[in-house]
Amino acid sequence: MTVHTGRHFLQIPGPTNVPDRVLRAMDMPTLDHRGPEFAELGLHVIAAMQRVFRTKQPVIIYPSSGTGAWEAAIVNTLSSGDKVLMAETGQFATLWRGLAEKFKLDIDFVPGDWRHGADLAEIEKRLAADKSHAIKAVMIVHNETSTGCVTHPQDVRKIMDRVKHPALLMVDTVSGLGSLEYEHDAWGIDVSVAGSQKGLMLPPGLGFNAVSDKALAASKTNSSFRSYWDWEEIIAANKLGSWPYTPATNLLYALKEGVAMLEEEGLDNVFARHKRHGAAARAAVKAWGLETVSIESHDHSPALTAVLMPEGHDADKFRKVVLENFDMSLGTGLNKWKGKIFRIGHIGHFNDLMLMGTLAGVEMGLELAKVPHRAGGVMAAMDVLTGKSVVPMTKAAVA
Amino acid sequence: MTVHTGRHFLQIPGPTNVPDRVLRAMDMPTLDHRGPEFAELGLHVIAAMQRVFRTKQPVIIYPSSGTGAWEAAIVNTLSSGDKVLMAETGQFATLWRGLAEKFKLDIDFVPGDWRHGADLAEIEKRLAADKSHAIKAVMIVHNETSTGCVTHPQDVRKIMDRVKHPALLMVDTVSGLGSLEYEHDAWGIDVSVAGSQKGLMLPPGLGFNAVSDKALAASKTNSSFRSYWDWEEIIAANKLGSWPYTPATNLLYALKEGVAMLEEEGLDNVFARHKRHGAAARAAVKAWGLETVSIESHDHSPALTAVLMPEGHDADKFRKVVLENFDMSLGTGLNKWKGKIFRIGHIGHFNDLMLMGTLAGVEMGLELAKVPHRAGGVMAAMDVLTGKSVVPMTKAAVA
Amino acid sequence: MTVHTGRHFLQIPGPTNVPDRVLRAMDMPTLDHRGPEFAELGLHVIAAMQRVFRTKQPVIIYPSSGTGAWEAAIVNTLSSGDKVLMAETGQFATLWRGLAEKFKLDIDFVPGDWRHGADLAEIEKRLAADKSHAIKAVMIVHNETSTGCVTHPQDVRKIMDRVKHPALLMVDTVSGLGSLEYEHDAWGIDVSVAGSQKGLMLPPGLGFNAVSDKALAASKTNSSFRSYWDWEEIIAANKLGSWPYTPATNLLYALKEGVAMLEEEGLDNVFARHKRHGAAARAAVKAWGLETVSIESHDHSPALTAVLMPEGHDADKFRKVVLENFDMSLGTGLNKWKGKIFRIGHIGHFNDLMLMGTLAGVEMGLELAKVPHRAGGVMAAMDVLTGKSVVPMTKAAVA
Amino acid sequence: MTVHTGRHFLQIPGPTNVPDRVLRAMDMPTLDHRGPEFAELGLHVIAAMQRVFRTKQPVIIYPSSGTGAWEAAIVNTLSSGDKVLMAETGQFATLWRGLAEKFKLDIDFVPGDWRHGADLAEIEKRLAADKSHAIKAVMIVHNETSTGCVTHPQDVRKIMDRVKHPALLMVDTVSGLGSLEYEHDAWGIDVSVAGSQKGLMLPPGLGFNAVSDKALAASKTNSSFRSYWDWEEIIAANKLGSWPYTPATNLLYALKEGVAMLEEEGLDNVFARHKRHGAAARAAVKAWGLETVSIESHDHSPALTAVLMPEGHDADKFRKVVLENFDMSLGTGLNKWKGKIFRIGHIGHFNDLMLMGTLAGVEMGLELAKVPHRAGGVMAAMDVLTGKSVVPMTKAAVA
Questions:
Q1: Quick check: keyword Transferase in the entry (chains A, B, C, D) (predicted)?
Q2: Would you call B367 and C386 a contact, using CB atoms and an 8 Å cutoff?
Q3: How far apart are CA C351 and CA B4, in angstroms?
Q4: Using one digit for the tens of pLDDT, what is the confidence trace for B258-309?
Q5: The overall pTM is greater than 0.90
Q6: Is C273 within 8 Å of chain B by CB?
Q7: Most exposed among A162, A224, B30, C282, judged by the fewest C-beta atoms under 10 Å?
């Protein structure tokens, strides 16, 4: 049995630290999912999620992981053989591609070095070249959780408008929603994909799609087999606050509370808080003499900071030292970054002192694991938080 | 806002009343799903579910509704055009059939009157006639939640053995598992389908497949598109107590506790308790001068009792009277039973006095809704519970 | 370990069934009891309790049992040798008397038979005879939890006014408050004593005094040693929402929620609900051919029903049968009623079906314990709840 | 409404951060306090508290604050006019003295400067001079929460033995128990006083007395009025796991879990953890160029660190800055320290990263509040935690 002498620091970039209010909301007796009290809840959470996605169009809530919502985006709108344009931003883009391959999509994968957002120039080039509009969808990861690099969906939208490409724009904002600005309607997103366990501050177990009319129209003519993920039936049932199958009632209680908390703080304040924490974390990394995976200021994620280990030092060994000495979980390096980076999550229910505990844990872990570094990261982070050092805000930060 | 002056009686046949211990277990901080503490939990719950299914073969746990586990059973083992034999036992059999149709299976649907278990004679006839073994799977609902009629999977297995048919045997035991005897291995089931929100006493949000080697072999050669539901990757990850995507961590805490409670009571005691409550409920119905949907003693479900309304009386109007006067949710009539029956759930975390409160609520509701009936159902039920009236045990009860 | 296969029925007359909302409210991180967020809570719960006591005068909240609040009433206003008039209504009156004896009060104890409220005629006689006003306080138990007999404080107030006696009127309403009408100001009560674990629907751990200006004035000149229970310091600190010592923070969260629930239902509805349940319980007792301890309709408690066992049958043996067979706790007979009565609590978070489960448990327990009785109590109770039998309302019921 | 964007840092020296396990344990339905399941709990927690106090003699658990347990110690063993020797170590010693005065004890108060443990030389002198043994009790505060100075009870015991003084030794270990070594039996303590909301990691609401045979004997001949606090009845009832009045059931659930957590970690590890955190906190204070209230290494508390503000700077203004900017509650200066010191609690459910978040909050608060200080406290603390700087252990630390 693991002995926790205080609170575990869950600083992976999701699942994130779930607020007590959300846990307690979830911890209430399950309701009849066909009764009037539930219907009220159902309508409430759907409207709440529309506000979070900033959309007036349908939001679908699945009992699923975020992965399930990826699959839903595909099976509703695309068929085997359909051409799609994806961008290699990291492991989650790669996994989504893998999923798309299982459904036999024809994938044009814009290469990337896992240290940047999507290659926008290349995307524009390929879209412009696609005169026949063979590309049915452009699929982008908003906040690439494996690298801490952001691809701004509005940048992609501008490109598509510029080259007048009619493809659907699909965005995975699993670890972006509720942490970074997101505008499903204003940015012209056709399918947004999200999950409960990041900025929404819930345990894992809910997946989301926000869908545009255009996406809905595409789904009507799409012949891919689907049932569980099928939008149509769900949207129909949702009008009365119900679902075609038993929804994950208690996670919906949690969702109501999570969104209430986001709105009490104010979404804009939530976004500003994440940016501030991102800036402080990067200041720490710099002071340690280490390098963030993300290079360009336009790409830095406000939700997590991925850090390169010095050559010859294993990131997972370091993470183990941190876990065993300081009861903190850091994110592992995924796929090609395995052992080479670690990731600091600062998404969700979080504040300055939790961040400082986190960064102190990293700094002490570097010391104990004998990873070459300079002391003082925590000092640099405090200077950002107290405003002593003025941080040049990233474009993300002022978007 | 609904005012509850005491505990709501959630007597639909699932979701069921979730024990405080399970809710409280769920109400704990989310863990790193890639860390060692989680791995211990992962291995624990998989083993626990193997004991509940009574299998030594893999059990897959999905973040999904039970419906998702239906879909998983199909997409892993069957392809469009495959012939399957299903039996019309009620609404859930019909829904599963509808799902199978969406995946373009070729369905042979043995008709039923929604008042019995599956027509075993007809199943045997059709299987025997299928000399070419075109039928790839026999798909049966164990406890038909829409009617309260049981189809005993071991009966179907005996038929298949008798006619030496090699089809897969797939069983939906969503509302059976943890309430009625179930033996995945001993009964030669190939795919079992279950959900968290019935006999396992959890909130909705988890779906389950238990799979045989034969089903696994079938999945290896099956070319149906799938990713989320794909067994292979999950089984591989499960060996280390992890999942290929973020599992519904907090529902897994709940699952650990729910199975612990079943095992503290003892599964055999759990089954006996449900039978006793079923017998008491049926005694009440009989005393009221009403009729259960289920006719044959072999078919009576220990988990719920569906009751026919007297001609000219609307079941949903009656349910509304009960809800508004007594804060009790009863199950609605589904599909062709709409308005004609109501269902009394006695699954899960339940005891004699909860049952008596439930039956008293029905009897008083009949009175207030002016439904013709005789008083005394609660008396008859008490006689069963105290042993004053010896109830001829159904075959289900002694299975 | 005790195995509970469903919810335990906690039908002692307190502690009562605590609502999930109250438990969950209590289950939140403890706050700084000297900070601004706590101060808001402090002011909130004091105001809330004033509304429940129906007073504009101070309410003091102790981290204590109700017994502590008894002691507080005494040590703040009375000194050793002071004469007080008490009435023997049952065990709690007797215990309060015992406490008063420990503080060397000179107690005039009006005798009673433990089957009625206080002997008002005798009280009037003794007060009238006390021309010198030696009696400093009249101390009455509102709802005598050991017998289910009510003494109406307003009746006592009328007597005191009639004979123009200036003694303080002190009322133990531990099991009355939040279940029966109570008017601290309008009825001219000087010290009210209450506890958290009855009609307020909280776990035990808080005691209350509501005090009049007259009582406060008495406390100022009273020289009894006291510190923990001293009103003065607490009232002073309470003005800022704080306490002179660390208050039971999490029980205060519970209190906020408990009162919120009472007010959502409406106190008058709460009282009517208790009366209705009392009437139904008494109808059941009558139908069983048993006798309630309370004899006069003016005295019947809406909060609990005490039942006499037939001669030669041990009430505690019966209670054991009920506990072991039906997982229900009934109240034991106290002191001279030991073994001779059992008590059915229907206070607090309660509804018709919980009552019916309770009464069914009693009826089945009588059967299993072979206690002579007629069947049909549950039927009689249902007739009251459905309005089929019109119950002559007690004076308590229309007060 | 206060918006918390992450967890509040409750760094007052009690109430302390309550572990989720303890909160969740408390959040379970209330039991019949006269039933067998409760009796098991009662016996369990009494035995558990005996292990924590390291005593085989009775432990009494009150529904009360720690203040109540102070009063209990006095009213059980002492009468008005009795002479007692107390030592002015700070506000809590002063408050206990105030309480003793209310009960008209004759108090010899050994003066102190609120920056040290008790003046042991002076205590020895006064005890030695008391040839007639007029002094009935020596009353000491183990861990003076208002200053962070420890008086080691075993030191006092040695003095009493040396001068062969038969007075009772009473120790307030409210904020010591469960954080600092404590040996009720081995150190010859007669009455120990404790509370739930510090090292036991519970919410406030329980007070404790551990009592020696000698103290019990004294109580038998002591004529002070008492009822609620009376040991005798409670000890008698406790033998069967019950109480003479309704105990605070749900706080007892919490107590069971809190002690379980202490024992899973191991009490010796718990003590070592607190010392380590104390050393790190003092290193931070020193690095800031500030001064701890506690001067001598023998006196430093492992449970909290009190810090002197630079002349001309108001501690409460600083605390407000910290609360508003960093959602952290620090302890205020009490009485003569009002405005001049702040206190950092590191008691209870706590770990290195929580400490680092705490110290970072202090350092950033000093910056924002423009309190003169040197940066680098957090660095110095990290050096202690990583073992880079070897801290000369205080005698307390090696006791």
A1: yes
A2: yes
A3: 8
A4: 999 999 999 999 999 999 999 999 999 999 999 999 999 999 999 999 999 9
A5: yes
A6: yes
A7: A162
Q: Quote the CA–CA distance of D222 and A17 in Å, as a whole number.
A: 54
Last residue of a domain, one of B229, B263, B297: B263
Q: What b-and-e string marks burial along A95-122, b requiring 16 or more CB atoms within 10 Å of the CB?
A: bbbebbeebebebbbbebebbbbbbbee
Give how many domains chain A has, as a whole number.
2
Q: Are D26 and C250 an interchain contact pair (Cβ–Cβ within 8 Å)?
A: yes
Among C141, C133, C142, C144, residue whose Cα is nearest residue C168: C133
Q: Any CB–CB contact under 8 A between B284 and chain C?
A: no
Among B20, B24, B26, pick the best mutation site for testing chain D contact (most D Cβ within 10 A): B24
B3 within a domain of the structure (yes/no): no
Please report, as a single letter, which amino acid is at residue D194: A
Q: Is the CB of residue D349 less than 8 Å from the CB of residue D367?
A: no
Co-location of C345 and C365 in the same domain: yes
Which of A21, A246, A330, A343 is most worth mutating to test chain B (most B CB atoms within 10 A of its CB)?
A246
Please write the tens of the pLDDT for every residue from C24-38: 999 999 999 999 999
Listed in sequence order, the residues at least 6 apart from C285 whose beta carbon sits closer than 8 Å to its beta carbon are C291, C292, C305, C307, C377
Residue B271 structure tokens: 């089954």
Of residues D75, D204, A286, B131, the one with CA closest to residue C251:
D204
Report the distance separating Cα C224 and Cα A154, nearest Å: 76
Q: Note whether B24 contacts D28, CB cutoff 8 Å.
A: yes
pLDDT for residue C398: 36
Residue B271 three-state SS: helix
CA D32/CA A59 separation, integer angstroms: 47
**Best of B7, B32, B350 to disrupt the A interface by mutation (most A CBs within 10 Å)?**
B32
Residues C241 and C270 placed together within one structural domain of the fold:
no
Write out pLDDT tens, residues A205-236. Answer: 999 999 999 999 999 999 999 999 999 999 99
**C343 labeled part of a ligand binding site:** yes
Neighbours of chain C (3+ CB pairs under 8 A): A, B, D
Q: Is A79 helix (H, G, I), strand (E, B) or coil?
A: coil
Q: Do C360 and B350 touch (CB under 8 A)?
A: no
Torsional class of B296: left (φ above 0), alpha (ψ -120 to 50), beta (otherwise): beta
Instruction: Report the DSSP pairing between strands D206-211 and C206-211.
Output: unpaired
* d(C-alpha D69, C-alpha D95), whole Å: 13
* Nearest CB partner across the interface for D29, out of B20, B27, B29: B20
HSE-up (13 A, CA, CB side) for residue B180: 33
| Chain center to CA of C19 | 18
In this structure, what CATH number is given to the domain that contains residue D389? Answer: 3.90.1150.10
